[in-house]
Specification:
three-stranded antiparallel beta sheet, Ubiquitin Ligase Nedd4, Chain: W, mainly beta, four-stranded mixed beta sheet, 2 helices, Nucleoside Triphosphate Pyrophosphohydrolase
Length: 192
Amino acid sequence: MSHEQSTDHGRAFRHCPCCGGPLESRLLKAGDPVRLVCAACGHVHYLDPKVAVGTIIRRPGDEGIVLVRRAIEPGYGLWVFPGGYVDRGEAVTDAAIREAREECGIDIRLDALVNVYSYTGRVPVIIVYAATWLGGTLTIDEESLDARIVTPETVPWDALAFRSTREALGDYYAGRTHPSALAPRQPLPEGW
C-alpha cells in the first residue's frame, strides 16, 4: 500500500517550479499551514496530498481475501491488500482495478467503498474499496514477496504494514462499507 510519510516539505523543495528562485516558508493567512513561497516571483507552491487506493478482494464462495507481502519500503516484508497511487487524471475506481491487476494478477469488480483514511502529518489519502475476484490467477509482481488468501482468523494482524491497512480491514470485517458510494451518478451540467 502507499507511503504514510511526513509532510516535512522544507527539505524536499528548494526552488520555484516557475522561475527557479528560492522557496521560503511563509505564513500567508492566520489559521492556514505554512506555505512555500518563491522569494523571487511570489509563486505559492501548494503541496497537495497524494491519493492512493486499495482493494480488499473477496474470493467468491468463501470468506477469503487477498493479501500481498511487500518487497519494497516502507513496510518491507509486511502484509497489505493490493493498492497503490492514483495517477494524475485517473479515476480512483480505475486505479483500484488497475492496481489489483498489476499487483496480484486479479480482475475485480468494486462492490463498495470501505472508507477514506488520512492522518495528521501524513501525505497520502487512502481510499479503500471492497471488491470481488472475477478472474485471473493470483500472482505477484516486483513489489511483492508473496500473495495469499487469508480468512478473518488468519489475517496477520501483527504483521500489517500500515495503520490504514489495519483500520480498513477492521472496518471491512465489521461490515462498515458504503455500497451506495459506487452507485451511478447523474451527469453534471456542462462546465462543472
